[in-house]
Design goal:
The complex is a heterodimer of chains A (272) and B (257).
Chain A lengths: L3 H45 L5 H12 L3 H24 L7 H39 L2 H7 L4 H39 L4 H11 L2 H27 L4 H33 L1
Chain B lengths: L8 E9 L4 E10 L4 E5 L6 H8 L7 E6 L2 E2 L5 H8 L2 E4 L11 H5 L1 H5 L5 H14 L16 H13 L5 E5 L7 H16 L4 E5 L3 H7 L2 E6 L2 E7 L9 H8 L5 H5 L1
Helix pairs in contact in B: 5-6
The chains are: A mainly alpha (272), B alpha/beta (257).
The structure holds adenosine-5'-triphosphate (ATP) and magnesium ion.
Adenosine-5'-triphosphate binds next to helix 1 of chain B.
């Protein structure tokens, strides 16, 4: 009997502990959103104001853009091809299979081109940035840079942000073309459609805004990919393990943010 | 005491703790212009942290760092940048940029902060590499292709290239053979005696400390427990210094831990 108040306290604590945990987690999430926002503001400022390290920007343009070409190209080709098959089968249920080229075109340009290209970059580029900057942090190279009167935000972060924001739309444009070509190949080779009519249908139907809205998305996704890579690398703690964690974190967080931003932007664009 | 001289660099009441016991507890330390101060002390006593706080790489919990008598915290960003343009640092672990070649590492400040053309910067880098006894053949190698002692010397070259006013050396001779070490000691001494630099060095190598230092300070448990001229190292009866110099396992340093 005497133990009762005690056990009630213990019980209350047990019952409430998930609540406290959620409260703490919420605070932690709010704090990290604040830290990311601050980092993003500093990075943006460094990217938009002189001084620019053009050599570094050039290097990143090639590392982020050029070296991602094969990955993005292949992803787009297969996605376009598979999309064509799916829409053909689905469309045939209500005799709408002839609209396949148009639907593939709109699906690729407005949605899959930018999203697939961005997700590929989340895996390839965000991870590479996080591990490189994380390793530099762990071995005091970033501290050394500061002592050499060079701002790491200008020398390291800004070039990566700029390169990703510039290159992802270009890669997306390429993904659009290759994705539609993938659909065309399936249409012509597998489904016996006329090559000329397929192109005609796509071309007549597609509006500028379909492509443009996809490219705007891509620029935003590029910002996310570079930001998550840079941020997670920059705050990495604890040597090689910390760098490993930062890399995973960069990939996961940029993928989730890309998909969330995709929905937000889509709902914004479809209201126009 | 010539207290009217404004110290080139001063730590005033600096405290710092990470998760655990305090690393620095109300540390007071100063170096006069054109003098060479060596900080000695046991491993993990906060010597590197002391230097990083002076450089603004680690924020202190309390206390001030003054350069030429002015609190660093009161500088505007531009003033800060201007002052730290004349500060050099050799990191304990080298901290070389592994994506850049040796000469680009050494010339990093010239190319990226002072905007010197690359050809000229390379020539200057080769000159300074010569001072640390590294030949032109290493200039185009990458840090990962160098031995530990060579990396240290590249770090040293990078720290001294911009004609700095204040130079920090975190264990400049660790990992070097005796001949190279004495050349490095002479080089550091020369920066101070001929060029008028103010130097703050950390070392465990007492022979090196005797050569480099005008003054020596011993850091223990977050405070300066002894301070004196380089020659006093062997004559002082301070128990901390005696134990440290004699390398005895038992004494006040052991008892405190
Ligand atoms: N970034 C950091 N985060 C947490 N703790 C740190 C950090 N840097 C240093 N410390 C702690 O501060 C203490 C002093 O470290 P410091 O590197 O200054 O030692 P030191 O005197 O230079 O030793 P050594 O002679 O071995 O280089 C150590 O206990 C270390 O664990
Ligand atoms: Mg140290």
């Amino acid at each position: 009997m005497a133990a009762r108040p005690d056990s009630e306290v213990a019980l209350a604590a047990r019952v409430l502990s998930p609540v406290t945990a959620i409260g703490e987690a919420t605070l932690e999430i709010a704090a990290s959103i604040g830290r990311v926002a601050l980092f993003a503001a500093k990075a943006t400022r460094a990217a938009l104001t002189p001084r620019w390290y053009f050599g570094q920007i050039g290097r990143q343009l090639s590392a982020i853009g050029f070296l991602s070409l094969p990955v993005v190209g292949m992803t787009a080709a297969f996605t376009g091809a598979a999309l064509a098959l799916n829409i053909w089968t689905g469309g045939s249920r209500f005799n709408a299979e002839e609209a396949m080229p148009q639907i593939v075109a709109i699906g690729i340009t407005r949605e899959l081109g930018p999203v697939m290209a961005a997700l590929m970059l989340a895996g390839r580029v965000s991870a590479a940035i996080a591990s490189e900057i994380g390793a530099m942090k762990a071995t005091e190279q970033i501290d050394a840079m500061v002592t050499l009167s060079t701002d790491p935000f200008r020398y390291l972060i800004a070039p990566r942000m700029l390169a990703a924001v510039i290159m992802l739309p270009l890669l997306t444009l390429l993904a659009d073309i290759i994705g539609i070509a993938g659909g065309w190949l399936v249409g012509v080779r597998v489904l016996d459609m006329s090559p000329a009519i397929y192109i005609q249908n796509t071309w007549d139907f597609l509006q500028d805004w379909d492509v443009e809205s996809g490219l705007i998305k891509a620029a935003v996704f590029g910002f996310i990919v570079a930001l998550m890579g840079c941020y997670n690398g920059y705050v990495a703690k604890g040597g090689a393990r910390g760098v490993g964690r930062a890399t995973t974190q960069a990939v996961v967080s940029s993928a989730i943010l890309i998909l969330a931003a995709d929905y937000l932007l889509t709902s914004l664009f479809t209201r126009i | 005491m010539a207290e009217q001289i404004i110290p080139k660099l001063e730590w005033r009441g600096v405290s710092k703790r990470f998760d655990g016991p305090p690393v620095l507890a109300d540390l007071d330390l100063a170096v006069a212009p054109g003098r060479s101060l060596v900080i000695i002390g046991g491993s993990g006593q906060g010597k590197s942290v002391t230097i990083k706080i002076a450089l603004g790489l680690i924020p202190a919990d309390s206390g001030q760092v003054l350069i030429d008598g002015v609190d660093v915290a009161s500088f505007s960003a531009a003033e800060r940048a201007q002052v730290f343009e004349r500060v050099g640092m050799l990191f304990q672990g080298g901290a070389l940029f592994d994506s850049l070649s040796v000469w680009e590492n050494v010339a990093f400040r010239l190319i990226n902060a002072e905007r010197m053309p690359r050809r000229e910067a390379r020539a200057r880098a080769l000159e300074v590499l010569g001072l640390v006894r590294l030949g032109a053949h290493v200039a185009d190698l990458y840090p990962s292709e160098l031995s530990g002692g060579m990396q240290k010397r590249v770090g040293l070259a990078r720290a001294i290239i911009g004609q700095p006013d204040i130079i920090f050396f975190d264990e400049p001779t660790t990992g070097l053979d005796p001949i190279t070490a004495s050349a490095i000691n002479a080089l550091i001494r020369d920066r101070v005696s001929s060029l008028g630099c103010t130097a703050v060095s950390i070392t465990h190598d007492l022979a090196s400390a005797r050569t480099i230092a005008d003054e020596i300070a011993m850091l223990h448990q977050g405070r300066i427990v002894w301070r004196g001229g380089a020659h006093e190292l062997d004559t002082t009866d301070n128990p901390y210094v005696r134990q440290f110099v004699d390398g005895r396992a038992n004494g006040p340093i052991n008892a405190d831990v």
